[in-house]
Design brief:
It contains four helices and no strands. By secondary structure, it is mainly alpha-helical.
Length: 110
Amino acid sequence: MRRTGHSLAGIAAAWRRDRSFRTHVAGSAVLFAALAWQGIGLDWWAIVVLAVALGWALEIVNAAIETLCDKLHPARDAAIGAVKDLASAGAFVVNLAIVAIGLMALVAGP
């Protein structure tokens, strides 16, 4: 139970601290509503839920990396900036894939 509490605290911290995470959650809600309205099948739901979960997880990891970088090196630094940009790029790539998967599910329909 303690580990679950730590995980939930991390999700809450991501919600409070990271605008990208909040944006991702909001976008996911819109996607889920559109897919529910479209009436997609369970196979598409499984794919979309997995993709969204991976996206949320990567947004949380990105936020953790950025928080750690800011704590360890608060001054501007090119190498730290590159680390943060790389982590952000990873999240961006997954988010693009989620958009593509969501569109495919919408087009495929029920």
